[in-house]
Amino acid sequence: MIERLWAKLSKSSLQPADPGAFENVPEHVAIIMDGNGRWAKDRGLPRMAGHHSGMKAVKRITIAADRLGVKYLTLYAFSTENWKRPKAEVDFLMKLPQQFLEIELDELIANNVQVRMMGHKEDLPPFTISAVEEAIVKTANNTGLVLNFALNYGSRKEMLEAVKDIAADVQQGRLAIEDIDDKVMADRLLTSGLPDPDLLIRTSGELRLSNFMMWQLAYSELWFTDVYWPEFTEAHFHEAILEYQRRARRYGGL
Ligand code: IPE
Ligand code: IPE
Ligand code: MG
């Protein structure tokens, strides 16, 4: 099966995908896009150049995922901890969604991609929100790949908000404590309605979650690479998918 897939994958980089032709493709892939700054530093460039180049990788991997027949692609673009960075870098990062969508939105629409966002909107500047919301509205009826940007996202904040929501329902008699289960919790997370990621990819050699989807990744397959995000290509993505296909997912069973 692996060999057959290889053949199809190498074909897929040359022509549009035939998703039905692939077996056992992860339905939901989540990526911690890391290493932009180090990529730039290695080249004697400012960190911003790394973020700019990282944007091109977003486009590359969106196309690659769509070709393979991945249904959901969640990309960690800005964490609730990234506000700790120098203001100039934060300001630059806040402008990236608008820049990316200005260039790519038409093509995303043409390719039937549905844009979504998960994160805490309240702290984001209005121009960031409006660019993302425009993309969400314009692609809402698309039925292809769901491209989900995690923007000002933090797993602990997400879970705390869900817990507060559940507590309020209990306090007001809308929910009984004994009825609180996985689904009640999952429905109150920012991923409500999305399946859990099948595969998590993190670039740049860091082996941690950095507050990303800690509820949803409970049974995801994890794949790490030393490659920095700006140089992450379709071939690396295929490597991750092939490794995923070799794994036996047991979910605690046999
Ligand atoms: C990932 O690259 C992008 C964001 C976190 C916004 P980094 O900016 O973290 O790059 P490194 O890890 O410093 O190299
Ligand atoms: C995680 O990367 C956040 C994003 C990729 C958006 P970081 O670079 O912020 O993570 P740490 O600080 O190395 O854990
Ligand atoms: Mg980093």
CATH class assignment: Alpha Beta
- Bound ions, cofactors and other small molecules, one mention each: 3-methylbut-3-enyl trihydrogen diphosphate, magnesium ion
Q: Unreliable stretches, pLDDT < 50, 5 or more residues?
A: 1-21
Largest sheet: 6 strands, parallel
Specify the number of helices.
8
Mean pLDDT level: 93
Going by CATH, what is the homologous superfamily?
A: Decaprenyl diphosphate synthase-like
Can you tell me the CATH architecture? Answer: 3-Layer(aba) Sandwich
Strand adjacency order, main sheet: 3-4-2-1-5-6
> What is the CATH T-level topology?
Undecaprenyl pyrophosphate synthetase
Which structural category fits the helices and strands? alpha/beta
SSE string? HEHHEHEHEHHEEH
Helix content: 40-55%
Pfam families: Prenyltransf
Cofactor: Mg(2+)
Binding site for substrate: 35-39, 47, 51, 79-81, 83, 85, 202, 208-210
Family: Belongs to the UPP synthase family.
Structure description:
This protein is of the alpha/beta class and 254 residues long. It has a single domain (23-153, 196-246), classed as Undecaprenyl pyrophosphate synthetase (3-Layer(aba) Sandwich), CATH 3.40.1180.10. It has helices at residues 2-12, 36-42, 47-68, 87-110, 126-139, 155-171, 182-187, 234-246; strands at residues 28-32, 72-79, 114-118, 146-153, 199-202, 221-224. Strands 3-4-2-1-5-6 form a 6-stranded parallel beta sheet, sandwiched between helices. β3 (114-118), α5 (126-139) and β4 form a beta-alpha-beta unit. α4 (87-110) runs parallel beside α5. Bound molecules: 3-methylbut-3-enyl trihydrogen diphosphate (2 copies) and magnesium ion. One 3-methylbut-3-enyl trihydrogen diphosphate is lined by residues 33-38, 78, 82, 93, 204.
